[in-house]
Specification:
Chain lengths: 433, 242, 305
């Protein structure tokens, strides 16, 4: 009896722990093939953040937004341009990208949001299209259709952090040596170099050369040349050893572009988004959003400033999309306008709808089904890819008809009845009003 | 008034109407005979409109039975009920405000397969309510409240209904107009239309009705002839403010 | 291109097409209070149906007859799709919260697009050249103030005008037209006077789809191809036109469509930036919402959420 609430309370943490361990488990069970899964799950989590952000407007506030990908694009391009041109750090770009997207949301919402709810749908749809035109045609800044390559993950604190991680060098070094299957000689000499201690100016040199190598370092590169120092950073396979020292992981260059790095970073990001969403839903603002979704006139008469509440919701939603854009640009290393098509806006919407509008768990479930589902099916049935969008479209309509509250919405027991009556209607051709 | 046939024109038994958790009508039974004026009186929220709407097929009944001319019609949709000769003039009149007066009347005759009687009936309505004739090309929404009530009643008359359901026709009207409305109701009955009238103006309703039912919280709590109810002390206290 | 009068002619042609599509949006909006996001797809399907008909069966027929039959065929195909949408994707949601039919519409829009993609292929479908060669001949066109009105442009303008006049007369005077207006205003009361609401709404979808189908055939002849992605942008513009004129208002959609076509063409003419023409229409949408949210001819319509 007493265990149950405890379990409920700790469930999120257990789940989080499980998600942290998942890449290891995957690697243990399927070896090299696990990388594709780690990447797919990372993408799924990123999309879940986007769908969660969208759920603030669509689910909590009942405002349909069809251009969510445009805010995502704004975040991505903000980071890509600033980091390529000015070397802006990822951590600074994260709030900045969110801010830019929120600002755009604010400007777009201002003329629209006080009008009928469905105008917002069409305005955001148009906005998504316009953003894509601008990205395509503002060549000098955005690279047009070619997009922006070689974005990478720039971390302003890199130098500061490296001094810090010298300590566990020997341990990682030893593990890596066996894992990488290289000759003992070369390693030993590097380790000597390290244990001998590098002075700050040497560090400086190493990192400036690291920065020029956009794609990170291969194991071979790492071990050859002047800088065995790279070994201080655990590679993907050994990263779990240093989980207790997250800072090390997130500041190690070879690790920075590994799937595991992105997986963990995105997991952190999603956890924050979930926390935010759940807190928002329970907050005063969240409750007024739900109230105005249910009955705008009543909400107004209860003294809720509906326009203000909607604007905040819309801006928050855009902000999360913008932050997700920063993460995406850094992870993907390359962006172009094609990523931010209407298709993806619809995909995020489908994720939110499938799992349950207004439900955090539901959104993650929706993202899992719609991202990992096709990923799974891709291998088994290669033709499925062609039918994916057909299926998503039909699923959205069907979901609204038989289970509008989504998979995780409150079960009112109506789904079965609705399915039955739908079946009867289809077979008998009779329909009731 | 003695019923002129042994089976009622409209017979309702154990009617229930629910709106989600709200149980608005809880097992009403009532009869209306050919040629009668029957009134249902009750306070706000008693379930009067819900009863009429479910008879007219505009609101789903949860359970119970409605028979019209001996045929079960419970759960039928409004177009069917209209084609059978049951018409509702709803509370609040619901004039098509962006259609002209004349078009409103034509819409009243929508269910007629044969359009030939339409011109004559229009003339009849204009004769009954001369003001409508004067304004026939005006938009419905520009009429005054009293004129709208007349138009609503005229619209229902376009199909010469067998049973006319009237939901608070006197609502919000000045006493003089209320008088006209009740005179018209009497005239309709003379022309052969049976009337089920819902009213909060219990005094007027009971004075013009043959029989009446008292509705409270979705249940019938009393019935009698109009005259009986008018003098019933309980009724006088509850509905007539005396 | 080049001269102002040519820009006006081109803008007018395009505007007529926007107007025809916008009518479908506005009629459905008027009666159901929802944006039928899949309407652009209905237009696109009409274009495909016309081009397919001519490719398959147009061969032995004389050009005007073949074109006429192609239009009829595309009206049939689009109407069936439009009616199917209403029947299966929207009708079950008629009393659901406002968001549900919109999401269903988005889903159907994507599904229809993809289904055309799967059945018609990844490349744009060409409109059979044989049937349009006479129509697009600018030499045969009428010279107007230094611009040329090609026979096809003339045809588009005339057909669109006739259809709009026909629709206006239908809505104003026919029994069904009046029933549509009554239903748009007060659905329950329309039922109470004996109007079969389902039939009226279905008819609305069929009429809107038919107009979109004609637009689809005309545009695919005009620009010589049709593609599964074409419906979405055309739909967006047509919706802008409908909002511009006042959503739910039939003459408004006509005026809005024509004006939007002209604004686009004149904008491109004035700035020379043809890449940005879609941005102009979006700008129009935002400006209209900012300064005249009810549109040019919009009445003060009660919020129907
Ligand atoms: N569409 C609806 N949804 C939910 N509840 C409803 C609906 N219509 C009526 N009700 C409820 O059902 C009850 C009966 O309503 P009804 O309109 O039948 O009363 P009434 O006797 O006509 O009242 P009034 O004299 O005020 O018109 C009320 O409590 C009302 O709130
Ligand atoms: Mg009432």
């Amino acid at each position: 009896m007493k265990v149950f609430p405890l379990l409920r309370k700790s469930a999120p943490f257990l789940l989080l722990g499980g998600m942290v361990m998942l890449p290891l488990i995957l690697e243990g069970t399927m070896g090299k093939g696990s990388t594709a899964w780690v990447v797919a799950i990372q993408e799924m989590m990123l999309f879940a953040v986007l769908a969660l952000g969208l759920n603030i407007t669509v689910g909590l506030s009942g405002l349909l937004v069809l251009g969510h990908a445009a805010f995502w694009a704004l975040g991505a391009y903000t980071y890509a341009i600033l980091t390529v041109v000015f070397g802006l750090s990822f951590w600074l770009a994260l709030p900045l990208g969110a801010l830019v997207a929120a600002l755009a949301g604010f400007l777009l919402g201002m003329p629209t949001i006080r009008l009928r709810g469905d105008y917002l749908a069409i305005v955001t749809l148009g906005f998504g299209e316009v953003i894509r035109y601008v990205l395509k045609n503002f060549q000098s800044l955005t690279g047009g259709d070619q997009g922006i390559p070689g974005i990478g993950f720039k971390d302003g604190n890199l130098q500061w952090a490296t001094g810090w991680i010298r300590e566990p060098a020997a341990l990682s070094l030893r593990r890596h040596f066996s894992a990488l299957d290289l000759s003992g000689d070369s390693l030993l000499s590097k380790s000597e170099a390290i244990s001998g201690g590098l002075n700050p100016s040497q560090l400086q040199g190493i990192f400036s050369s690291l920065d020029t190598n956009q794609n990170g370092l291969s194991a071979k590169e790492l071990l050859s040349g002047e800088w065995g120092f790279g070994f201080l950073c655990p590679s993907q396979e050994a990263a779990w050893l240093t989980l207790g020292r997250p800072l090390e992981m997130f500041t190690c260059k070879p690790f920075l572009h590994s799937p595991l790095h992105w997986y963990l970073l995105t997991l952190l990001f999603l956890s924050l988004a979930l926390l935010f969403f759940v807190r928002l839903k329970k907050s005063r603002l969240g409750r007024s959003l739900i109230a105005l979704r249910e009955d705008e006139i009543a909400a107004k008469s209860m003294g809720i400033n509906t326009t203000k509440a909607k604007m905040i919701a819309f801006a928050l939603s855009a902000a999360w999309a913008g932050a997700a854009g920063v993460l995406f640009a850094a992870r993907n290393n390359f962006i172009n306008p094609e990523f931010f098509k209407l298709d993806n806006s619809v995909l995020f919407l489908a994720m939110a709808v499938l799992g349950g509008l207004g439900s955090a768990r539901g959104t993650v479930a929706g993202a899992t089904i719609l991202w990992l589902g096709p990923f799974l099916l891709r291998e088994q049935f290669p033709q499925f890819q062609e039918y994916k969008w057909l299926a998503i479209g039909l699923l959205m309509a069907l979901m609204m008809i038989i289970r509008p509250q989504g998979i995780f919405g409150a079960n009112t027991g109506k789904t079965r009845v609705k399915l039955l009556s739908l079946w009867q209607r289809l077979t008998k051709g009779r329909i009731s009003r | 008034m003695t019923p002129n046939s042994s089976t009622p024109l409209l017979q309702i038994s154990d009617l229930h109407v629910r709106y989600g958790p709200v149980h608005a009508v809880r097992g009403i039974s009532l009869d209306v005979y050919q040629g009668e004026i029957v009134t249902v009186i009750g306070a706000n929220g008693a379930g009067k409109s819900s009863t009429l709407l479910s008879i007219a097929g505009a609101e789903k009944l949860s359970s119970g039975s409605i028979t019209f001319q001996g045929i079960e019609v419970g759960g039928k949709k409004s177009p069917f009920m209209v084609s059978r000769g049951v018409n509702l003039v709803p509370e609040g009149r619901h004039i098509f405000s962006r259609l002209t007066v004349e078009e409103n009347l034509e819409m009243g005759a929508f269910s007629l397969k044969d359009p030939s009687p339409i011109p004559a009936r229009k003339e009849h309505v204009f004769a009954t309510f001369p003001v409508l004739g004067e304004r026939k090309d005006q938009l419905g929404g520009t009429l005054s409240g009293g004129e709208q009530q007349m138009l609503a009643m005229g619209r229902a008359l376009m199909v010469a209904p067998k049973l006319l359901l009237l939901d608070e026709p006197s609502l919000g009207l000045a006493p003089l107009i209320v008088k006209t409305v009740f005179e018209t109701i009497i005239a309709f009955r003379k022309a052969g239309t049976t009337i089920l009238l819902v009213e909060q103006n219990a005094n007027m309703a009971l004075r013009h009705a043959d029989r009446g039912y008292l509705l409270e919280n979705g249940m019938i709590v009393g019935e009698g002839t109009g005259k009986e109810l008018l003098v019933d002390p309980a009724v006088r206290e509850a509905y007539l403010g005396a | 291109m080049g001269t102002l009068s040519q820009a006006v002619i081109n803008g007018l042609t395009l505007g007529m097409v926007y107007a025809l599509i916008a009518l479908g949006y506005t009629m459905v909006y008027g009666i159901l209070g929802m944006i039928n996001f899949a309407h652009g797809e209905i237009y696109m399907i009409g274009g495909y149906a016309g081009a397919t008909f001519l490719g398959l069966w147009g061969g032995g027929l004389s050009v005007p007859i073949a074109l006429g039959l192609a239009v009829l065929f595309s009206i049939l195909v689009s109407s069936l799709h439009g009616a199917g949408l209403e029947r299966f994707a929207y009708r079950p949601l008629r009393n659901a919260p406002a968001l549900a039919p919109l999401i269903s519409a988005i889903g159907m829009s994507i599904a229809l697009q993809q289904y055309v993609f799967l059945t018609q292929g990844t490349t744009p479908k060409p409109f059979p050249q044989f049937f349009r060669q006479d129509l697009v001949a600018y030499e045969a066109g009428i010279k107007l103030f230094g611009g040329t009105l090609s026979p096809l442009q003339g045809l588009i303008i005339i057909i669109s005008t006739l259809l709009m006049i026909g629709l206006s007369l239908f809505v104003r005077h026919s029994k069904m037209g009046k029933a549509m207006r009554a239903t748009a205003e007060d659905r329950r009361m329309a039922g109470l006077v004996g109007i079969d609401i389902n039939r009226v709404i279905l008819t609305t979808f069929v009429i809107g789809s038919a107009l979109a189908a004609v637009a689809g055939v005309m545009v695919s002849a005009y620009i010589s191809t049709i593609f599964y992605r074409d419906g979405y942008l055309a739909g967006l513009k047509a919706f802008t036109a409908a909002v511009f004129g006042g959503i739910g208002n039939i003459p408004g959609a006509m005026v809005g469509g024509v004006l939007l076509g002209l604004i686009e063409a004149l904008g491109v003419w004035a700035t020379g930036a043809s890449d940005w023409k879609d941005v102009f229409s979006f700008g129009v949408l935002i400006l209209v919402l900012l300064f005249k949210p009810r549109g040019l001819l919009g009445e003060v319509v009660a919020e129907k959420v």
